[in-house]
Amino acid sequence: MIPEIRKKYNEQFTDEKYQEFLDEINSTFNHKVKFRICETPIFVPRALSKKIFEACDEIISILLRPDFKELTAKSLPDNVNVPNEDNHAVTLVIDLGICIDEKGELTPQLIELQGFPTIYAWENFLGAMYRKHFEVPEELDYFLNGFDSPKYLDFMKHTFLGKYNSENVILLEIEPEKQGTSIDFYITEAYTGIKPVCISKVIREGRKLFYLNDGVKTPIYRIYNRVIFDEFLKRGDLKCQFNMVEEVDVEWVSHPNWFYRVSKYTLPFIKSKYLPETRFLNEIKEIPTDLENYVLKPLFSFAGEGVIFNVTREDIDKITDRSNYILQRKVKYAQAIQSPEGGVKCEIRLLYLWPNADEKPTLTISLVRLSKGDLIGVKFNKDKTWVGGSIGFFES
Length: 396
What we know:
Blueprint: H1 3-12, H2 15-28, E1 42-44, H3 46-63, H4 68-71, E2 91-100, E3 106-114, H5 120-133, E4 140-141, H6 149-161, E5 169-173, H7 182-192, E6 195-198, E7 203-205, E8 208-213, E9 216-220, E10 222-225, H8 229-234, E11 251-253, H9 258-261, E12 278-280, E13 294-298, H10 313-317, E14 325-329, E15 337-339, E16 342-353, E17 362-371, E18 388-390, E19 392-395
Parallel strand pairs: 1-19, 5-6, 5-10, 10-11
Antiparallel strand pairs: 2-3, 2-16, 4-19, 7-8, 8-9, 12-14, 13-14, 15-16, 16-17, 17-18
């Protein structure tokens, strides 16, 4: 998006450099990455950065409302309401599509926000790998808000561990070694000492939780939670002593309830020029006649599951639980990234950390996804090049 930098990067890019880049990534933690890594980072100009940060501030303002919990009370399904909810989501991500406004300028549009962790450790590692293997000008930085790698890792460690030693904090997931983002779990352990643990391996004794740490029964005081309830409820084959809804003496990062509170459910309450028209499906009295301009999204799906991009009236008529869907006006993604193969769309995810004692979340780093298809997620862009997971380098 900074033409002269993009031109130079593309001219200097070679398949050999890209393969060396991938080889080091896959060998550093002795773990092959399961998703596609893009050939390039993106270069974000100052003018667009200003709009991005303004959009995020407007979005976050609703999370800071004193009545936010009351506003989102109906978001919590009864069967997954976890006890001991804290005051706010400790992890927060905001997804912005890069679009074209009426003036023909690049502008962000809010696609989604989540009170759920993303691949924080991976992005720190990925930014350093791009910097090492490709020529990126020094005046561009992949850290935001004055962070550098040591400061970022300290803040991440402080946020995830709280007051506890790493052996008493676990990264909780369903069969973590099989997850698409498993590389992040291994990097998180390397950076913080927090081990990934399958929920089926957690031992519950009354209100106390334990896990086997190299064969030693060890207390769990804090959980860095990566379990998505919808996925967990489908896994009837898992034999678990702990199902997350029991009253136990443990702290959460982030508490599971925030997955529901800070989600697509929040979008209809946000008023911003950076948010496309978004309404709860059950509150729409007359279905728009131009459904080709809308996308239908289930409220609590993850990674694009269940999204209907080309909506028809028949799709809507089939839905019985309309309160669990939103209808959102489509945005027109700009082909903002010029690859050697033509224009590519992108979505920028802003990664925030919000320690329990802090008044508001702190922006740290970004995650970027590049796409040539209708849907942005990495899994929707298989067998393509110059697409996939990446990171943003921002003009200072």
